[in-house]
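STRUCTURE:
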């Protein structure tokens, strides 16, 4: 049973957008420009030791900026993002990559789905059709790997999502308060662990279409790291089922007050 029993009151609740950033100076301004005015209460950028002027530009644009002293990785960056959002009493948290791959105009739509209690987690799906994804610049190997891995994850987790690997995600506060995300990896597999945890703790997942944009400045992991990500994601599914069948007790899937 989902944690959300009733829909929150319309248009209430603080909305915080978080941006895990690494060398995003060339795309940050465009990402921000598309966010509809008045739809978020605060935007925080967490910089993971960028070598460009991401931090300076973010401050110039009026964002809240948190700088890591050392590179903590993509998962480690998200942990900082979510800690801050919870500390700021956010009721709805939107995570969007500042690389302009994801259309930030859909932020109010995702938040409204959360407000209505339809979903507890909303992902942006980059893949409506194969033609659209490939025409948008998604590398063919990445498209087919995404399709295969998403099919496996949907079957293993009992879901029907279009894109398990999106860099646009929105959550109700209770999701972040419940899921022991601090125990997750500091690498890219953080996302796969998080969604498996959301299913384990009974939250409702859904998605909305988001046009895909791939170009030279957009961040993307290379083939080798993509392969590692796919293998570790399959490992997460194995851990999920081992825990579900009580073959092992995995801290990833246990409440935060238990080890």
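SEQUENCE:
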């Amino acid at each position: 049973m989902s944690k959300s029993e009733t829909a929150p009151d319309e248009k209430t609740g603080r909305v915080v957008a978080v941006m895990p950033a690494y060398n995003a100076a060339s795309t940050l301004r465009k990402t921000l420009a598309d966010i509809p005015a008045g739809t978020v209460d605060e935007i925080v950028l967490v910089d993971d030791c960028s070598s460009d002027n991401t931090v300076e530009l973010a401050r110039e644009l009026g964002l809240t900026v948190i700088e890591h002293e050392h590179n903590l990785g993509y998962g480690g960056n998200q942990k900082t993002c979510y800690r801050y959002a919870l500390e700021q009493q956010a009721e709805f948290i939107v995570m969007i990559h500042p690389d302009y791959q994801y259309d930030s105009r859909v932020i109010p739509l995702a938040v409204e789905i959360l407000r209505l209690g339809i979903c507890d987690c909303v992902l942006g799906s980059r893949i409506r059709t194969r033609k659209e994804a490939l025409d948008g610049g998604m590398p063919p190997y990445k498209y087919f790997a995404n399709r295969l891995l998403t099919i496996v994850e949907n079957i293993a987790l009992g879901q029907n999502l279009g894109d398990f690997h999106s860099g646009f995600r929105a959550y109700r506060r209770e999701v972040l308060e419940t899921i022991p995300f601090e125990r997750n990896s500091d690498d890219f597999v953080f996302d796969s662990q998080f969604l498996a945890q959301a299913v384990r703790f009974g939250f409702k997942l859904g998605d909305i279409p988001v046009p895909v944009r791939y170009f030279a400045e957009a961040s993307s992991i290379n083939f080798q790291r993509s392969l590692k990500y796919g293998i570790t994601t399959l490992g997460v599914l194995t851990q999920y089922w081992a825990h579900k069948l009580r073959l092992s007790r995995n801290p990833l899937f246990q409440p935060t007050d238990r080890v």
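REMARK: The longest strand covers residues 15-21.
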